[in-house]
């Protein structure tokens, strides 16, 4: 039964929220606009905040639901709970519905940690807000949140123990890898700042 819920976690994470919003409400494929990324940031840049808000809400829920709901339904151990969260994040980043394209995993990861370690998630979110405000680079804010999340997990109360800490460190590595193109643009001075250079379509 746990394997069924593992597959469901991936499929839930793989729900291509921004792709559907772009197609259904604006008649465009977000993979062909902006950065080509199927995440909330590119949704905001191309379609505006009214489209981006429901995308980020659903993306967070895709991470929250598998680790909050599924373990109780199948009696899974905490190791399986982490596997459910990891599967949701992988699904978001590599969705089978859109030829294994997706987002960079930040919103769905936030949902996972909102369920498992809410105080750590809050700390990382505050880091994200501060860096977004100071630099106006969403990529810098996301990287900063990912890098500091293990610290918050290590020093805030949660039920995950050392397993959650190692999971968090691995997730930070994945998020850095997912932002490798952003790091290149930052190094070249070509990264778009938040609130500038929006490509509005529809």
Question: Can you characterise this structure?
Answer:
Helix content is 72%, strand content 0%. It has 202 residues and is mainly α. The chain has one domain (2-188). Helix 3 packs antiparallel against helix 4 (49-68), helix 6 packs antiparallel against helix 7 and helix 7 packs antiparallel against helix 8. The longest helix is centred in the N-terminal third of the chain and has 20 residues, at 49-68. The protein is globular and about 45 Å long. The chain starts with a helix and ends in a 14-residue tail after the last helix.
Number of strands: 0
What distance separates the N and C termini?
44 Å
- Give the helices and strands as they follow along the chain: HHHHHHHHHHH
Shape: globular
What share of residues are in beta strands?
A: under 5%
Computed CA radius of gyration, to the nearest angstrom: 16 Å
Structural class: mainly alpha
Mean pLDDT across every amino acid position: 92
Please indicate the count of domains: 1
Short description:
By secondary structure, the chain is mostly helical. It has one domain. Helix content is 72%, strand content 0%.
């Amino acid at each position: 039964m746990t394997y069924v819920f593992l597959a469901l976690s991936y499929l839930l994470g793989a729900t291509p929220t921004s792709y559907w919003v772009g197609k259904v409400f604006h008649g465009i494929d977000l993979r062909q606009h902006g950065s080509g990324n199927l995440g909330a940031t590119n949704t905001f840049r191309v379609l505006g905040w009214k489209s981006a808000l429901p995308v980020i809400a659903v993306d967070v829920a895709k991470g929250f639901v598998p680790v909050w709901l599924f373990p109780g339904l199948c009696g899974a151990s905490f190791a399986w709970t982490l596997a459910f969260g990891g599967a949701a994040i992988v699904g978001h980043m590599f969705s089978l519905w859109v030829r294994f394209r997706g987002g960079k995993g930040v919103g769905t990861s936030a949902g996972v940690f909102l369920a498992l370690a809410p105080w750590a998630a809050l700390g990382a979110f505050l880091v994200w807000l501060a860096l977004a405000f100071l630099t106006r680079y969403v990529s810098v804010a996301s990287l900063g949140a990912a890098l500091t999340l293990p610290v918050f997990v290590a020093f805030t109360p949660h039920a995950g123990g050392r397993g959650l800490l190692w999971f968090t460190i691995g997730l930070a590595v994945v998020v850095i890898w997912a932002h490798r193109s952003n790091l290149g643009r930052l190094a070249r001075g070509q990264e778009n700042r938040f609130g500038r250079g929006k490509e509005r379509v529809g």
